[in-house]
Every structure is written in C-alpha cells, then in structure tokens.
User: What shape does this take?
Amino acid sequence: MTNLLSSSNAAVSTQPEVEAEMAAVAATAVEGEPQPRLDYPPYRSSLLRHPTKALHPANPEGIELWSPVFGEETIDPVEADLTVQHEGEPLGERMKVTGRVLDGDGRPVRDQLVEVWQANAAGRYRHEKDQHPAPIDPSFSGVGRCLTDAEGRYEFTTIRPGPYPWRNHRNAWRPAHIHFSLFGTDFTQRLVTQMYFPGDPLFSLDPIYQSILDPWAREQLVASYDHDVTEAEWCTGYRWDIVLTGSHRTPLEEEA
Ligand SMILES: [Fe+2]
Assistant: This one.
C-alpha cells in the first residue's frame, strides 16, 4: 500500500502545482536512466525515504538466517483466489489477472512466489493506516499469492480495486492498481512493483506512476484487457507479463 502519511507542508500543494512539478522533472529525463526516478519531489513521502547511498552488499546466506523464507508446500491454491477467502462473496467486479514472469530472453521463470495486495472495490485497504471513508468489505482481505508454473504463468482471481485518495497533495488520488511482489530465490532478490488498468484517467495526475519518466516503461505497468481471459457469465480478464531483466524489463521499485 502507498504511504498515506505526508507532511503538513506537502498537503497544501494543489493538483496543478504537482502537475507543474511533474512536468518540470519530466523535462530533465535522460535516455536510459534507471526507472523510476528515485529522487522525485512530486511524490512527497519519497523525499526522505528514497535511497541516497549505494546499495549495501549483503551476504544472501547470512540474510537467510533472519529474513522471511517460504516453502512451496505452504502455498494453498486457494490463496490465488481472493474471492473465496471468506464466507461471503466480496462486492465488486470479479476479474482474473494472469500473465507470465519472463527473463530478458523471454524464457519463463518457473516456481516463483508471486504475491499481490490491493484495495477493495471501494478503494479501501484493510489496514489501520487506511482510514478514508470508504467501506471495508468483510469478505475481502485483498491479499493473495501463488507460484508460477512451468511456463512462468501466474493467475489470480480477485475483485477489481477502486482508486483511492492519499495525502500526497490536495485531492490526490491513486489510479487503481494491484501491488505485486516477486520473491526470487532468496529475500535479497525480492522485487516489488504495481500493475495498473488500461485507460485510467488518473495516470497523468499520479506522482507515483509519473515517477517513471520513460513513457514506454510506464506502459509496461499497464495490463491489457484480454477477452480470452474473460470468462462467460463469470469474470473479466486481464493479462500482464513481468519481465525481470534486459531492456524490456518491467520497472520495479527500490532500484538504484
Ligand atoms: Fe496501493
């Protein structure tokens, strides 16, 4: 979930002011620079949080002693269906999102732990930090996970999330999105990003989406509607591939 806190100073900025800031930064884009731009003032809470030093080398084996780990046997197929985790059915547009995790040469990345978290149809997270006045759905937790198959494919059934307000500036709204994490083979490889929906009118207004300065790279975060994934009388379908390396890779957070 996005950090919902910001300084009182930042809260007084208006949308046009933030858009002007975003345009000014966009004018400084350098071809081939890492995406997203980590030092990105329009995204207020990132100012103090973004890395300012080189990454610290870590011994993967040492980190394994205290970092989260997982075993394949602990993952239940039901965890990939966010609509059946409670007694009642969640409200909203039932949808399926599927795609492949690929390396830079287009090869499938198998047995990858893919985790997702998202707001409900009303744009509300089930999290104490999210107190905006939209309903919590008692039948929806908004978290799921699965492993990629032999073709690198993942698939989730869920509810389409709603956009939500955050306090980056006055009247700031996030485009609807699903957070994705790929665990890798150990915790030091974990990658985190967000998937968006095609045609969202909030794209041009959102400092998180716009912190990826390269328009082509931004588009890699937008899923495609796919009628072959859509199921008759049941759910709509979206397709989104994640490319881990190479020039076509999906932009990922926390990159240096
Ligand atoms: Fe979020």
